[in-house]
Design a protein that fits this description.
Largest sheet: 5 strands, parallel
Structural class: alpha/beta
Number of helices: 10
Order of helices and strands: EHEHEHEHEHHHHHH
CATH superfamily of the largest domain: Response regulator
Distance between the termini: 45 Å
Strand order of the largest sheet: 2-1-3-4-5
Radius of gyration: 17 Å
Shape: globular
Length: 221
């Protein structure tokens, strides 16, 4: 099996060198490009087509959130893992809405970094514990059931969305619903189209907002 191709978007040379050493010691990972600015990332990443992009949020030219959003169009097959010092709720949800698939703090250990990269590549949504607690708190808010605005989703699609919101990946959803992996992927494409989103993270956030009384925004907390 070919190693997972990684791109780093990080302007701190010391942190970048540390990340490169981590990847060099991981046989299942390889670094295909490094970028110090958002502009470099928007040029290099579509050319190198990494499976995973490890993204800093504080870049010299524009934010990693904006870079993540723009990469959705330029490199739709690359999954973004945010790697940052910022743990505030506003940046977390902005990054997830922009299309990030995971959110890791720079205090994470070497093992956690490698595990998160592999998890993102396999369709997961890894988060540092502190970040996951913020998201879970939002998930636990009272919701109305059933949704009054189901965007034309079928019962099967609603079931898949509910499992996504609980953190299940595609393979686990297939097992839970006793359907094939490809069938789940087919339904996910339909869900994205109906909800007008481009990632599972966006789909989950929009799904949860649909079930909030008044369609609440987590950034309004």
């Amino acid at each position: 099996m070919s190693p997972v191709r990684i791109a780093f978007v990080e302007d701190n040379e010391e942190i970048l060198a540390s990340l490169q050493r981590i990847i060099a010691r991981a046989p299942d990972l390889c670094c295909v490009c490094t970028c110090a600015t958002g502009a470099e990332a928007l040029q290099a990443i579509p050319l190198h087509r990494p499976e995973v992009v490890v993204m800093d949020l504080q870049l010299p030219d524009f934010s990693g959130i904006e870079c993540t959003y723009r990469l959705r169009e330029l490199a739709p097959d690359s999954r973004v893992l945010v790697y940052t010092v910022y743990a505030d709720s506003e940046r977390v949800f902005q990054a997830l809405e922009a299309g990030a698939c995971g959110y890791l703090l720079k205090s994470s250990t070497t093992a956690e970094i490698v595990e998160a990269i592999m998890d993102v590549n396999q369709g997961g949504a890894p988060m540092t514990g502190e970040i996951a607690r913020k998201v879970v708190q939002f998930f636990r808010k009272p919701r109305i059931t059933p949704s009054q605005d189901n965007e034309g989703l079928s019962a099967r699609e609603e079931a898949i969305l509910n499992l996504l919101a609980r953190g299940f990946v595609t393979k686990e959803i297939a097992h839970q619903l006793e359907i094939s992996f490809d069938t789940v992927r087919f339904h996910l494409k339909n869900i994205y189209a109906k909800l007008h989103v481009r990632s599972r993270t966006e789909a989950v956030i929009k799904h949860l907002r649909r079930k909030e009384p008044g369609g609440g925004n987590p950034l309004d907390d």
